[in-house]
Every structure is written in structure tokens, then in C-alpha cells.
Specification:
The complex is a heterotrimer of chains A (471), B (233) and C (485). Chain B is 37% helix and 28% strand. Chain B is an alpha/beta fold. Chain B has a single domain, classed as Rossmann fold, CATH 3.40.50.300. In chain B, the strands form 2 sheets. In chain B, strands 6-7-8-3-9-10 form a 6-stranded mixed sheet, sandwiched between helices. Chain B has a 4-stranded antiparallel sheet with strand order 2-1-4-5, covered by helices on one side. In chain B, 48% of the residues are buried. By secondary structure, chain C is mainly α. Chain C has one domain (22-483). The chains are: A mainly alpha (471), B alpha/beta (233), C mainly alpha (485). At the A-C interface, helix 2, helix 3, helix 4, helix 9 and helix 10 of A face helix 2, helix 6, helix 7, helix 8 and helix 12 of C.
């Protein structure tokens, strides 16, 4: 019976010219989004690889100089797109794309894509993920809003029931016909996207991430299909049901994501750069706890060293004291940066948690977060990237300071030069892209809320009874 | 005095004639009942007098004012009672009446509004209840009150008694007769032959867009009319 | 029965009074209005909170930097007979020390209209610290801490409320103005009372328009009061241009929904058309046009990002290179043409280094201008695209009226650069003519005064286009409704 209703439904769709136009629209806009993303990301990759290479060449070809000066010449880190950015660029559009790495300070990531765009970017960024997250539910609504009440309006429901179908199996069949149709689309679209991105970006497909994305998007598609059919069965008039479903879509997919981000910002406001810099300066000058002033720290180190090496002055130490002090102050400032950046990241993570909790009422938010994480473009992966870059900065600056400490004499700042092979011995930043498994623990709330949605709708399906509405 | 007049009135929909050369004159105080099968042209005739649709040829006049030429003026002269009276479920009977009266440009006191509803046969306690709690017959009464409040010379009715129980039909008939006595002209489309004879002063029978018979009720019995009707269609 | 007839023959349409009466009978309508009004107040709060954050950050920043600067200036009055006083005097007056010590703030305070539209303000820095050295080198390292989560989702500011939510409210209140009456069979009764489709629609839309206008008016007045009492800002022309834009945008939506009502066959078709219309105008078109703009105006920031690298090398030790650089600076800036500094002077290497910075900045200016002009061109296309892209175009215009777009931010950037030049005008002569900096030199710097950018006249173009489009929609609808009774 269910399969018969499904095939009957599909036959009706095939004969409806409006649906043909909708299908053409979906295919065209999906292809367009995919083409745009692949084009954008592959150009970006080329640009960034070139920029990174140029920066590397500049580093290698600098003349021999004092290691600390060489460290001040600095290095650049450019974010490079990964395979699934073609599917979902997520936060990468809004975060900085490059950072200048130099001694003593952790610079911010600057030059975000959104800074270079017009205000139109606030309306969304065309990508396959956007099609699946925003447009697909709309089409599901258009196909399901009158699936049940339409049958009543046409008077065919009574006929269906009199032919032996029970109300619940009609609901299941109607849901299945919508779901399977779009599930086919999602499967195909995801495969094409993964394949094309792998070809154009020249990377390997992360099978697990693709599979995971497929499962989550399927769940999302199921949630909307079932919601559409259930609303259609609970509301007598098809005019009201479409109005309600569209309102629901606008609420969960446009208003709530924005509202939740703003409420999260109100609850856990992010400090300004000005305040951040003040905190950093204060911590470096007075100690992280405020009781360890800078000059006393240096004196303490000096005293300890003199005691340890049993010498009278720093000049008698077996290494360059200036290099050592630089290392120590670098290490201390790193501690300070870690402390304050962690606080900053904590604020962002708290904000994200609030947003994730809103996912309980908006499956879109849950899906969006999961999708970004799977595509390596979530808050956590962005923070991780920043930390990797920072880790690199420290190791490269320390490396240069070590050279100064171990190989140069005290007071030889103006005369000492690094060896010729020193620059090449400092490797370029190799960013490690995180796997899907790495992100999963950060998505606990999202998983739970998507499952709760499915559970809630299934319960509604199984308690639904035509008599409640139509008698 | 002739109130409603149709001269060679015709209406076509995509080349198919719904009404052919209707000639009709209805005088003040008459209750004219139009009989005929579904699709015979009864509703089309009413719609043409109301000005809902434009005639393909010929003219419909009310008090010698052409409907199509001066629809705003003729609308003031007619009231309309549809077959299905929905009105606003979230408003009471008295509020519905008030709203529709305002639309027509009248402002009545609550007392006046209540008196219209009472005249149309609606119980006083029902008048303040919401329309969603009303039966079909009660909603019909509100529609009559709307017509009364408009103080229109002509009342056009489209199958007003369909779906009403016999008691409601009897009440409805009584009110129509009373209105006729007051000098109102009533033009109604109906399927109810017996009620037409009982209530009407004149009866027309339509077939495929043409008025084929026109008889006065005092010259015919219900059985004879039924016979004539069956023979006609 | 004696009926007291009070018919007023001159009533052209169903009065607002009657529509009001019918409107308030529905609890849903009142609930919708309240929810949207609360959302409006919340959106105003967001704009206010953002503006307050900026104002506070600027105040604290300015206070900190100016205090340090004033402390530096105290060196002029120091007692130079003792060591500390001598040092303090050297810190401020010696060109070898003051180059590091002069740190000046510039800032872009939010304008009055910024309370309505945050726009791109969360992405661009609104305060800079300036030193004597290369402008681009120091400036491209300074950014505001971005909140990518909020950037991704967008601001819930008054502009959002107007661009997205008010059309939604209009749709919910009006989408079935006619079709609902047709569907439930009341239409014929209404029509038989002498009300035509046009009268019915006009009165409903006029009424809903007035309701929404009152909401906007209240929010607008609240914003002006907040500006006055909290930020000490008087209303500006831009505030009213914003209000004008809001009204034009609303008129456009009212006309669009009016047309859907005039042509729509039934309630579900109307809901579908309105829903699709909203999605197309507020999501699809902006996204597609944004994409097309990105494609047609490609931007590469690699070179710009590289400008933060500090110039280095043995060349700065080379006196012939140094002499050449100083000569070049003299050609570019005749004021330094007869510089007395020579390779034997103690400040020679510093002078060469800073001259190099100055020349490097000049060489880079064109690239930065080009980079910025591309970003501004993207915005400009969005702002004038109202014929295709009303929502994003109005959003762009609101952002530009609020002085929170890329153009305003770039303008602030150039104002900062100008201020930097003024600082250099004081400092460079001292260095190149081997003089000490005097109190009077510092007095010439003054403090940075931000000038909001002028409006682009293109906003009127977009306003007029949108009005013409609304008129066209109304014209087409009237053609249709004139045929209906």
C-alpha cells in the first residue's frame, strides 16, 4: 500500500509542470553553487599556495643577519582551503585569512573574505551547503504542505481510507515520497561535490567526513519532510499550512540563527582589542597574577642563573645571557598570550554553546554547526588553526633565539650573523587538517538535538490520528 | 412600478452561452422565484443584476439605472444573500451586522442593530454570541439582517433555503413575505418548487440559459408547477 | 419600521476606522504586531549595545593614549638640571627617541545613524595607534577582534528588522486580504455592500501600512532619544534619509504584496507566492548578486598583507644607499631637499631608515588605493542594484548612511594616513635638519578629528528606482483590480 501511494505521488509530480520548473531551478542553482564554490576555492588555493611560497622565498633569500633580527623579518601563515570547503566554507569566510608571525607578539588573523565583500555577504554565501540547508527545506515544504489536507480538500482522503489504507500509513507514504525524492538529490549532489572538489583541488576525499555529512543532511531532510506532512495533517486548510510552514522555515533558518548569535554575544560579550591589549600589557608588566613585575622577574632569573652556574656576572655564563633573557621573556609572554587567548576562546566557545542549545528548537543551527565541523570550517577548527600557527611562531622565534643564545657572545648583537643554512633549517608552517573524529566531541548538543527532533516527530507520527483533526 | 428589468440580457463564457436574451420585468413588492437545473443560468442572472460580472450583450437595470454603467449606484439599491453564508466566525452576530453596515456606509446604534436581528428572527441571547457557534439557519438570519440594515429596495438571493431544516425554511418564508408586504422586491434562485409556490408571487423556469416559462403563483398549484418543471427540463 | 438612515454618500472607501475595528477583533493580529514590535525593540538594543561598546572602547583607548602622550609632553617642563628631568626632556625632544615615544590615537566614533545599522562595523578597526614609522607597516597589523560566529549569523539590528522582518509582518497581515474573503464566501456579501476589490485592498493596505509606520516611528524616536541622552548626539540628516529609505522599502513591499493579492487565486497560492517572493528577494537574489560581484571584481590581498613586514637588510648600513634615499626623499618632499643630515651625523641611519619607510609608503599607496577601490566598487554595485536586488541594496544604503560600510572605513583609514603625514611633517624636519623637537612642533599636531564621510548621491538613485518599481507594481495591480468589481 505504502509503495503504491509513493509511486502514485511521484506520478502526480511528474505531470505537474510547476514541479518540473522547481526541479529545474533546484538543479540549476545547485550546479551554479557548486561551480562557484569549486572555482572560488581552487583559485583561493592557488593564490594562497603562491603567497605562501613567495613568503617562504623571501624568508630564505634574506641576507645573513642577527637571528633576532631575522626573526623580526617574520613569517606569514596563509590559510589554505580544504576539500570540503567546496561544500561548506563555514566560518572561513568570516575569519582572517593570513597572519604575520613575528617575535614578542601574537598578531591577529586579518584580511577576512567578508571584509573585502559588499554588505550583500550578510545575506549568505552561495555554496552547496547553503542549498541543502536553506533552499531544500523550502522545496520540501512546497511538495508537502498540502500532502494530507489537500487530499481532504479534493475529497480523495475518504476514498483512500475506504480502499483500506490507514491514516498513519498514508502519512508514512507521503513522508517517504518527499524524503526519498530529496534524499536522492542530496546523495547525488554530495557525491558530485566531493568528486569535483577532489579533482579541482587535487586532494584526497575524506570518506568518513563525506559519509557523516550525508547521514546528517539525510536526517535534516527527513525532519523537514516529516514536519511538512505532519503540519499538513494537523491543519485543515492548505492555505494555513503553507503559511505556517514558511513561517517555521523563516523562524528556524533565518531568525533563530541570527537571534541566537546575538543573544549569545549579549550573554558572553567578546572583549575589544583595546581591552585585550590592556590585559596583555598588564599581565606582561605585572605578571599574570599581578604580583610578578617584569623587572623583578628578570632580576630573579639573573640571580638564579648566577647561583646555578656559580659565577659572578652574566658575562661569565657559558651562553649568551641576552639570548637567554629573550627566550625567557618570549616564554613568559607566550604564557600570557595563552592565558588571555584561552579566555577569549572560552568566550567564543560559550557563545557557540548558547547557539548550539538553540539548535534544540532549530535543526538548521545543529546541522550548520555539524556541517561546518565536518568541513573543517567550524569555530573549533579555526581556533585550532590559529593555535597551530601560534605554535609554529613560537617554535620558530625560539629557534632563532636559541641560535643567539648558543652561538653568539654577550654583547655581539651588532656583529653576530646566523649561519647560511639556518633559514632553510626552519621549516615552513605545515597546517594539520583535523579529521572528522577530532570534531565529533565538540558536537554533542547538536547530535542530541537532531535526534530529539527525529524522535519528537516520530512520536507525533505515531500518535497522529485523523479523528483528532477532522471529526 | 418596475424595479428589476432585463432586456435581451446575455452572458457568454469562452464562447459558451450561460444566458441567452433574457427579458424580464419585476415590479415592486414581488417575490420572483427562478427555478432551473444546475447550470441553467440562475446564478448568472443574479450576478448580472449584482454587477459581479459584466453582460456580453443586453442590459440589466434596477430602478431604471443600468447596472453595468452605474454599478456603484445600483449596489446601493440591492442587498444580497448568498447560498453559503460564512461571515466572520470570530465576531458576534451583532458585530458582523455592524461591520457589513459600516461597509455600506451606515452607522447604527447597538439598539438599532439588535432590532434588525430580531426582525430577521434571531433570538436576542444569540445575537452576542460568536458566529462560529451559529447554525446555518442562524447565519442566514444575520444575512437577512444585513439586507434589512442596508434598507435596500431589492434583495437578491441565491438558493437561500438550501440546507435549511423545514422549520428554518418556514421562518425564512415568513420573513420574506413580511418584507414583500413592506414593498421590498425579492428575486431569488431556488430548487425548492413547493416553497417557490408558497412564497413567491411569480415564478420563472430556466433552461440552458433561456427563460422558458413565466407564471404567476396564483394561477398554478404546486403539483401543476412540478409537472411543468419536469416537462420543461 | 422607521430606519434612521445615516448613510454618508461621500465615503470613498471602507474607512481606516472600520479596518481597525475588524483588525483588533483578531487576537492573532495583535499578537503578531506585539511580537514584531518587541523584536524591533530588541534590534534597536543590539544597535545601541554595539554602538555603546564602540564608544566605550574609543573613550578608554583615547584616554590611555592621550594620557601617555601628555606624560611625554611633560618632558618639556621637566627640570633638566637633574638626570631624570634630562631624560624626560630627551625622550620628548630628541628625534632619536621621540620616534618611538610618539604614539597617537585615531578613532572613528559611531555616527548617529549607526544605532540602526551595524553593517560591516564589526569587521573593520575603528581605532588605530600611530607611530612615526611606515604607515602601512603598522596599520595592516591592527584589527578588531572578530566574532566569526556573529558575522556568520549576522546582526539582529534595526536594519535586519526592517529588511527581513517587516516584510514578513506585512506578508502575514496581508497575504490573504482578498483570497480569505473569496475562500470563505464573504466576498460577495462585502462586494454587494458596495465595496470593490480596489477599495477593500486599499483600505487594508493603508491600515496595515499605518500600523507598521507607527511601529517604525516609535522605534525611530526611541533611537533618537537614546542618541541624544546616552551618546549626546543630535539627529542628523542621515537619520531622516534612513527613515525615508525605510518607508520606500516598505512601500515597495506593500505594493508587491498588493499585486500578489490582486492576482492570486487562493490563499495557499498567495502564501506560496509571498513566501517565495520573500525568499527570492531577501535570500536568493542578494546571494546570487553577491556571488556575481565577487566573480566580476576579483580581489587579491597577498601584496597588501605583505606590507606589514619590517624593511631590513645590510643596505641600511651602506652610506651610499643612505645618501641616495635621502636625496630621493628630498625630490619627493622638497621641504627636506636641503636636509643637513649627512652620513657622519649620529641620526643618519635612522633618517635613512625612516626616509625609506616614507618612500615605501608612497610606493605602496597606489596598491592600497586599488585594493580599497575594488572593495568599494563591489559595495557600490550592491547599493545601486535596487532594481534587481532591493533588499541588499537598501541594506547597503542603510550601512553607508550609518557610516559603517567599507567606504567609510577606508575613508577613516585615509584620514588616519593624513594624520600620520601631519605627524611626519613635524618629526621629519627635526630629524633631517638635526634639530630638537620643540613644544610648538607638538602643538601643530593637534588631536585627530574624525570627519564622517559624505553620502553618495547614488542612494537617491536607488530610492527613486525602488519607488518607480513600486509604482509599476501598483499600476499593474490596478489594471487588474479595475477589471474586478
Amino acid at each position: 500500500m505504502i509503495s503504491k501511494i509513493i509511486s502514485h505521488e511521484w506520478l502526480q509530480w511528474r505531470r505537474d509542470s510547476r514541479l518540473k520548473w522547481l526541479a529545474i531551478f533546484l538543479v540549476v542553482i545547485s550546479a551554479f553553487a557548486l561551480w562557484h564554490q569549486i572555482n572560488f576555492q581552487s583559485t583561493l588555493l592557488k593564490k594562497r599556495l603562491k603567497a605562501q611560497e613567495d613568503s617562504r622565498q623571501e624568508w630564505l633569500s634574506q641576507e645573513l643577519k642577527h637571528p633576532h633580527m631575522a626573526a623580526h623579518f617574520g613569517n606569514y601563515a596563509y590559510k589554505k582551503p580544504t576539500l570540503l570547503h567546496c561544500f561548506d566554507p563555514g566560518l572561513t569566510i568570516y575569519t582572517g585569512t593570513s597572519v604575520y608571525m613575528e617575535p614578542h607578539k601574537q598578531n591577529d588573523f586579518l584580511f577576512s573574505q567578508s571584509q573585502e565583500s559588499d554588505t550583500g555577504i550578510r545575506f549568505g554565501w552561495l555554496s552547496p551547503a547553503m542549498i541543502c540547508q536553506l533552499i531544500l527545506p523550502l522545496l520540501i515544504i512546497l511538495l508537502s504542505f498540502n500532502s494530507i489536507n489537500g487530499e481532504y480538500e479534493k475529497g480523495t482522503m475518504a476514498l483512500l481510507i475506504s480502499q483500506g489504507a490507514n491514516f498513519r500509513s498514508v502519512l508514512i507514504a507521503k513522508t517517504a515520497s518527499v524524503f526519498l525524492f530529496f534524499e536522492g538529490f542530496i546523495t547525488l549532489y554530495l557525491l558530485v561535490t566531493a568528486y569535483c572538489s577532489a579533482v579541482y583541488l587535487g586532494t584526497v576525499i575524506d570518506i568518513y567526513a563525506v559519509l557523516y555529512i550525508w547521514i546528517v543532511y539525510s536526517l535534516y531532510c527527513f525532519i523537514w519532510s516529516l514536519s511538512g506532512v505532519l503540519v499538513s495533517s494537523l491543519i485543515k486548510s492548505s492555505g494555513t499550512s503553507i503559511a505556517l510552514l514558511l513561517l517555521l522555515w523563516m523562524f528556524t533558518n533565518i531568525i533563530l540563527p541570527r537571534g541566537s548569535a546575538n543573544i549569545a554575544e549579549n550573554m558572553h560579550p567578546l572583549i575589544t582589542n583595546q581591552q585585550f591589549k590592556q590585559l596583555l600589557t598588564a599581565s606582561i608588566d605585572k605578571g599574570i597574577d599581578g604580583h610578578d613585575p617584569k623587572n623583578e622577574r628578570a632580576k630573579k632569573i639573573e640571580k638564579e642563573l648566577l647561583l646555578q652556574y656559580k659565577v659572578d656576572s652574566v658575562q661569565q655564563l657559558p651562553f649568551n645571557f641576552e639570548g637567554f633573557i629573550m627566550q625567557q621573556s618570549e616564554a613568559y609572554s607566550s604564557k600570557v598570550y595563552d592565558h588571555h587567548f584561552n579566555q577569549l576562546f572560552t568566550t567564543l566557545k560559550q557563545q557557540k554553546k548558547i547557539q548550539s542549545l538553540f539548535g534544540i528548537i532549530s535543526p538548521y543551527i545543529s546541522l550548520r554547526n555539524i556541517s561546518m565541523a565536518a568541513a573543517n570550517a567550524s569555530l573549533e577548527t579555526e581556533i585550532d588553526f590559529q593555535q597551530q600557527a601560534e605554535h609554529y611562531r613560537r617554535s620558530f622565534v625560539q629557534n632563532m633565539n636559541n641560535d643567539m643564545k648558543d652561538n653568539s657572545a654577550y654583547g655581539s648583537f651588532k656583529t653576530y650573523r646566523v649561519r647560511k643554512d639556518k633559514y632553510a633549517s626552519i621549516g615552513d608552517l605545515q597546517v594539520q587538517n583535523r579529521t572528522m573524529q577530532w570534531s565529533i566531541p565538540t558536537l554533542f548538543i547538536e547530535h542530541i538535538s537532531l535526534l530529539l527532533w527525529v524522535l519528537f516527530l516520530m512520536i507525533l507520527l505515531f500518535i497522529s490520528n485523523q479523528k483528532k483533526v477532522y471529526n | 412600478m418596475t424595479v428589476l428589468k432585463a432586456i435581451q440580457l446575455s452572458k457568454e463564457y469562452n464562447g459558451v452561452a450561460a444566458l441567452r436574451n433574457l427579458n424580464l420585468e419585476i415590479r415592486q413588492g414581488e417575490i420572483f422565484c427562478l427555478l432551473g437545473q444546475n447550470g441553467a443560468g440562475k446564478t448568472t442572472t443574479i450576478n448580472l443584476f449584482l454587477g459581479f460580472i459584466a453582460a456580453s450583450s443586453g442590459s440589466a437595470t434596477i430602478h431604471n439605472i443600468d447596472v453595468s454603467a452605474n454599478n456603484a449606484a445600483t449596489k446601493k439599491l440591492v442587498a444580497y444573500i448568498p447560498e453559503v453564508v460564512q461571515l466572520y466566525g470570530n465576531l458576534s452576530g451583532i458585530e458582523n451586522l455592524d461591520f457589513f453596515s459600516r461597509l455600506a456606509g451606515f452607522k447604527y446604534t447597538d439598539h438599532e442593530l439588535a432590532s434588525f436581528l430580531t426582525r430577521s428572527g434571531l433570538q436576542t441571547d444569540a445575537q452576542v454570541k460568536r458566529l462560529s457557534t451559529y447554525s446555518k439557519g442562524m447565519r442566514q438570519k444575520v444575512a437577512i439582517a444585513i439586507a434589512l440594515a442596508k434598507n435596500a429596495a431589492v434583495i437578491l438571493m441565491d438558493e437561500p433555503t438550501s440546507g435549511l431544516d423545514p422549520i428554518a425554511v418556514a421562518e425564512f418564508t415568513k420573513i420574506c413575505k413580511a418584507l414583500s408586504m413592506e414593498g421590498k422586491t425579492i428575486f431569488m434562485a431556488t430548487h425548492d418548487i413547493f416553497n417557490a409556490v408558497n412564497m413567491g408571487t411569480n415564478i420563472g423556469i430556466m433552461k440552458q440559459g433561456s427563460l422558458v416559462h413565466q407564471v404567476a403563483t396564483n394561477t398554478i398549484t404546486a403539483n401543476e408547477l412540478q409537472q411543468l418543471y419536469l416537462e420543461t427540463i | 419600521m422607521n430606519i434612521q438612515q445615516q448613510q454618508k454618500n461621500n465615503i470613498p472607501a471602507i474607512s481606516l476606522n472600520t479596518q481597525y475595528w475588524l483588525f483588533i477583533k483578531s487576537k492573532t493580529n495583535l499578537l503578531l504586531l506585539s511580537i514584531f514590535f518587541i523584536a524591533g525593540i530588541y534590534s534597536l538594543y543590539q544597535g545601541f549595545a554595539f554602538k555603546r561598546k564602540q564608544v566605550n572602547a574609543i573613550a578608554s583607548f583615547q584616554h590611555e593614549k592621550i594620557k601617555k602622550f601628555n606624560d611625554l609632553l611633560k618632558g618639556f617642563d621637566a627640570d633638566t638640571t637633574n638626570k631624570l628631568g634630562k631624560e624626560a626632556f630627551a625622550e620628548v625632544s630628541s628625534p632619536f627617541k621621540s620616534n618611538r615615544n610618539i604614539v597617537l590615537p585615531t578613532f572613528k566614533p559611531p555616527v548617529s545613524t549607526a544605532i540602526f545599522a551595524i553593517g560591516q562595523a564589526d569587521l573593520f578597526p575603528y581605532y588605530y595607534t600611530l607611530k612615526v614609522e611606515s604607515f602601512f607597516m603598522q596599520i595592516f597589523k591592527q584589527g578588531e577582534i572578530a566574532n566569526p560566529l556573529r558575522s556568520l549569523s549576522g546582526h539582529f539590528d534595526a536594519a535586519f528588522w526592517i529588511i527581513y522582518l517587516l516584510p514578513l509582518l506585512l506578508i502575514l497581515l496581508c497575504f490573504s486580504t482578498l483570497s480569505a474573503e473569496l475562500g470563505n464566501g464573504n466576498w460577495r456579501l462585502i462586494n454587494s455592500q458596495g465595496i470593490t476589490v480596489k477599495k477593500w485592498l486599499n483600505s487594508k493596505f493603508l491600515f496595515v501600512g499605518c500600523c507598521v509606520e507607527i511601529m517604525i516611528g516609535l522605534i525611530f524616536i526611541a533611537a533618537l532619544l537614546l542618541n541624544y541622552f546616552y551618546f549626546n548626539q543630535y539627529p542628523t540628516l542621515n537619520d531622516f534619509l534612513f527613515l525615508l529609505g525605510v518607508n520606500i522599502y516598505l512601500i515597495f513591499w506593500l505594493c508587491l504584496i498588493y499585486m500578489i493579492n490582486a492576482f492570486g487565486k487562493n490563499t495557499s497560492a498567495n502564501a506560496m507566492y509571498c513566501g517565495i517572493g520573500w525568499v527570492v528577494i531577501c535570500v536568493l537574489i542578494p546571494v546570487l548578486i553577491s556571488m556575481a560581484i565577487e566573480k566580476s571584481i576579483p580581489i587579491d590581498n597577498t601584496n597588501i598583507s605583505r606590507m606589514s613586514r619590517r624593511p631590513q637588510g645590510a643596505k641600511f648600513e651602506d652610506s651610499s644607499f643612505g645618501t641616495k634615499i635621502i636625496r630621493e626623499l628630498g625630490v619627493a618632499y622638497p621641504i627636506n631637499k636641503n636636509a643637513t643630515i649627512s652620513e657622519n651625523s649620529p641620526g643618519f641611519r635612522l633618517a635613512v631608515y625612516l626616509a625609506f619607510h616614507k618612500l615605501l609608503d608612497d610606493a605602496n599607496t597606489a596598491a592600497v588605493k586599488n585594493y580599497f577601490s575594488k572593495i568599494e566598487a563591489r559595495q557600490q554595485i550592491t547599493n545601486i542594484s535596487s532594481i534587481l536586488n532591493p533588499a541588499a541594496s537598501m541594506d547597503g544604503i542603510f550601512t553607508s548612511l550609518a557610516n559603517n560600510d567599507a567606504r567609510a572605513s577606508h575613508d577613516y583609514f585615509w584620514q588616519t594616513k593624513h594624520f600620520h603625514s601631519r605627524l611626519n611633517d613635524i618629526y621629519y624636519p627635526a630629524l633631517f635638519f638635526e634639530k630638537q623637537l620643540a613644544k610648538s612642533d607638538y602643538a601643530k599636531i593637534n588631536t585627530f578629528k574624525y570627519q564622517p564621510i559624505y553620502n553618495s548621491v547614488t542612494l537617491f538613485y536607488s530610492y527613486i528606482i525602488l519607488l518607480l518599481m513600486s509604482w509599476l507594481l501598483l499600476f499593474i495591480s490596478n489594471k487588474k483590480t479595475n477589471k474586478l468589481n
